[in-house]
Amino acid sequence: MRSEVAVIGAGTAGLLAAKGLAKAGVSATVYDQKHRLGYPARASGILSIKGLESLGIDYSRALTNTLSGARLHAAGSAISIESKKPIAHVLDRPELNQLCRDEAESAGATVITGQRIGGDMLSRIHDSSIIVGADGAVSSVARHFSMGSIQRYSLTYKAEYNINAQDGMVDLFFDNSYKGLFAWLCPNSKDILEVGVGVDSRHGNGKKAFEHFIKSKEIAGIIGDSKQLSEGASTIPMSMRGSIIDERNRVLLVGDAAGQVKATTGGGIIFGGNAALMAAKAIVMHLKEGKRLSDYEKMFTRKFGLEMALHSMISKAYSGADARLLGLGLRAMRVLGIGRFLGDYGDMDMPSLMIKRFFLRGLSN
Ligand SMILES: Cc1cc2nc3c(=O)[nH]c(=O)nc-3n(C[C@H](O)[C@H](O)[C@H](O)COP(=O)(O)OP(=O)(O)OC[C@H]3O[C@@H](n4cnc5c(N)ncnc54)[C@H](O)[C@@H]3O)c2cc1C
User: Fold this and answer.
1) Is the pTM of this model over 0.85?
2) Beta strand 69-74 pairing with 169-175
3) How far does residue 268's CA lie from ligand 1's centre (Å)?
4) Which residue among 35, 36, 44 is best mutated to probe the pocket of ligand 1, counting the most ligand atoms within 8 A of its Cβ?
5) Domains of the chain, start order
């Protein structure tokens, strides 16, 4: 029997949408071209604890580390933003995928792996089912239904090393002197350090940028002759797609397919996952109460529209700034006590909350 909803892509966004639908009694089938979901593991899993809670999943079995802050680096300057309490978890990505699959299937959704959905198949499914396009940054669903393009991409390259990394802080590097490079060092677990870079797809190549980054004296000193455990390239959408809903054709895009990613860091699981839950809710209301599917876009814009715009503004501001100016900016932030303020009141996902707190309290505690 044909499902009421076909979800294309079994990443976190697709599986969360399927779980939301199945829990509300709507039949959902998820298709993924991969046989082993979540592999190869090309992305990281740094997620705010608050954001993770909003997804309503039991993530404990995927947890590999907990972080209390970040150090920002630019042009030889650094600022530390440390919170008194844990603010983020690091999750094992394949395990996160697997637990989302388990939860979707327990709720009653069907997950079919090893099946790529191309144009012909999409046309056939589309005759009888609502389609949720959760098929990642290079979405076939978006292309098939002409839902516009994504203007900005980041090309990434990352590797894991067997390095003892105990301090619970992620290091973020901004280097505009090299193709707008953004890089990170993240202690994925007590003895695994992840080193990753992203560059704007218009200017650079992820692997070359990675090689440039790990050659720098500071990073070469950290990596030394430690064993490399994995490496790989991937792509992150850095702006929203032209359209995330096609009401006439009954197609909704969620996650990376929709470009629901924070432009500052490339993190997409929290926004994309919440969007998937909203899409599921809009479909349920459409099928049961005759409401419009476009309510999905309204829900997303109400909750995340301003945040997406602020992430984009911040990202454009630092990627357009001179490298030395960024270094000076960090030094000024340190002198003004902004690191401490961000540690106490910062929010990894929702910059508007931080801005509100700033205007209410100023920099003093
Ligand atoms: C290096 C890197 C680091 C990252 N770090 C973080 C981080 O720390 N925190 C964070 O929140 N986010 C991070 N992200 C972003 C995050 O990985 C993505 O936002 C998230 O995976 C998007 O989930 P998704 O379900 O939308 O898409 P995806 O995870 O891309 O899943 C799409 C699925 O669709 C399937 N598919 C594609 N086409 C078809 C087709 N035609 N037919 C059938 N199946 C298809 C694919 O096989 C895939 O399984 C990072 C990304 C990268 C690359």
Assistant:
1) yes
2) parallel
3) 8
4) 44
5) 5-45+92-151+241-315 (3.50.50.60), 153-237 (3.30.9.10)
Torsion (CA) 132, 138, 143, 147 in degrees, nearest 10: 70
The first and second tokens of residue 44, run together, are: 């990281």
Cα four-point dihedral sign 49, 52, 58, 61: negative
Residues 12, 41: Cα–Cα separation, whole Å: 13
Q: What is the mean pLDDT of residues 125-132?
A: 92
Q: Please state the atom number of ligand 1 nearest to the C-alpha of residue 90.
A: 8
Alpha-carbon separation of residue 94 from 41, 56, 179, 186, 290 (angstroms):
6, 18, 31, 17, 37
Interval 165-188: pLDDT, tens: 778 999 999 888 887 789 999 999
Least confident of 59-73, 119-133, 168-182, 197-211: 168-182
Residue with tokens 């395990």: 95
Contact (CB, 8 A) for 280 and 288: no
Question: Which whole-number Å values give the CA distances from 314 to 6, 170, 309, in the listed order?
Answer: 36, 19, 9
pLDDT at 141: 97
pLDDT at 315: 86
| Ligand 1 contacts CB of residue 140 (under 6 A) | yes
Ligand 1: centre distance to CA 125 (Å) = 23
